[in-house]
Design goal:
Elements (H helix, E strand, L loop, with lengths): L2 H15 L12 H14 L3 H8 L3 H23 L5 H15 L4 E12 L16 E9 L5 E9 L4 H6 L2 H7 L9 E2 L6 E2 L2 E3 L10 E2 L10 H27 L11 H25 L23 H17 L8 H18 L1
Parallel strand pairs: 1-6, 6-7
Antiparallel strand pairs: 1-2, 2-3, 4-5
Organism: Pieris macdunnoughi
Subcellular location: Nucleus
GO molecular function: hydrolase activity; metal ion binding; nuclease activity
């Protein structure tokens, strides 16, 4: 983060985090409050370590950091993570097509567990299958790895599909509250198709949400190509999580704070991620820092028994046919053939 970027952040939140001097004590300045919070995030140091570094009581730190995080979210979210307008959705879709060869794509969705220390009197509510306690960050990322929407705080014991159907995003998607563009053809002369979000097999198949064909079934080459094209674009949300964790090392260890504070820390981290990344993109707007790879680690869950699933099924079939005809790219067959050859070798060995 540059000096100018820091000063801009400070100007946004200065009034919110300012404390008045008293007859007994001079208040900690607003710049120092912001520095302490950023250092806490960047270094991953505990409150105890920060307390020693700044000679500030742990109780004071536990007051400063939630206030600064909440202010960062309130002031930055409307600037770097506001709900896109219809023209802005189309810009996102164009970026996915230009960078990742996926048409009509509005974002990649996934969930990430943020590990926390066991909350008091929480029982198993935040206990996840990997024998740790967590809250969940559900996020949608654009083609550059910026977060479009987030939902923070679901209990770690819930599955990705349960977290999704309980999220604000699911509710507004079901109620047509996202201002999505009208259906458009994937190619000139084609049938109009919905704009879609893309996720892994943990998510339900819906009209506006595509997922891979499940790999526990025997897939043909066309289906494998669809899965490859989807996973190539979908990995942007995984890359966003990776950047978030490596930029803010606080996520390298369990958060030893109240649940309410943990939510504020995560939300602030996401808007700071967008703020920093947006400035980087503006410097090199036509470049992407991500390499090509193929992920096939899917975990299937039961489908929705609804008309929405049926619509999603036919939308996925249309995209699959398009990627294997008019929308083919020169290198996709080699990528998938490598997977088929590898599977064949593995089968012969057994």
């Amino acid at each position: 983060m540059t000096r100018d970027e820091f000063e801009y952040l400070h100007s946004l939140i200065e009034d919110d985090i300012k404390k008045e001097n008293t007859n007994y004590r001079e208040a900690i300045g607003t710049r120092e409050r912001l520095v302490i919070t950023l250092r806490y995030r960047i270094t991953g140091n505990s409150y105890t370590a920060l307390s020693k570094s700044y000679r500030i009581g742990r109780s004071t730190l536990s007051e400063i950091i939630p206030v600064v995080c909440e202010s960062l979210w309130i002031k930055l979210q409307p600037k770097v993570m506001k709900l896109p307008t219809e023209p802005e959705w189309k810009v996102i879709a164009k970026d996915f097509y230009d960078l990742w060869n996926f048409n009509n794509c509005l974002g990649a969705i996934d969930g990430k567990h943020v590990v926390i220390f066991s909350p008091r009197k929480s029982g198993s509510q935040y206990f996840k299958y990997k024998k740790t306690f967590s809250i969940v960050l559900l996020a949608i990322a654009d083609a550059h790895g910026r977060f479009i929407m987030i939902d923070v705080g679901s209990m770690g014991r819930y599955s990705d599909s349960g977290i999704f159907t309980d999220s604000n995003f699911y509710n507004v998607l079901q109620n047509n509250g996202l201002r999505l563009p009208a259906d458009e053809p994937l190619y000139e002369g084609g049938l109009p198709q919905p704009y879609v979000f893309i996720g892994d097999c943990a998510f339900p198949l819906m009209t506006h949400l595509l997922k891979p064909y499940p790999d526990h079934e025997r897939l043909d080459k066309d289906q494998l190509i669809f899965n490859y094209r989807l996973s190539r674009a979908r990995r942007m949300v995984e890359s966003a999580f990776g950047m978030l964790v490596h930029k803010w090392r606080i996520f390298f260890r369990p958060l030893d704070v109240k649940i309410s504070t943990a939510k504020k820390i995560v939300k602030a981290a996401c808007v700071l991620h967008n703020y920093v990344l947006q400035n980087e993109i503006e410097k090199t707007p036509s470049q992407s820092v991500f390499s090509d790879n193929m992920s096939r680690n899917y975990s299937e869950v039961s489908e929705q028994n609804s008309a929405d699933f049926e619509d999603g099924f036919f939308v996925r079939e249309y995209f699959m046919e398009y990627f294997n005809s008019v929308g083919t790219v020169s290198w996709q067959n080699n990528r998938v053939q490598n997977v088929l050859d590898s599977d064949r070798i593995t089968h012969n060995l057994h």
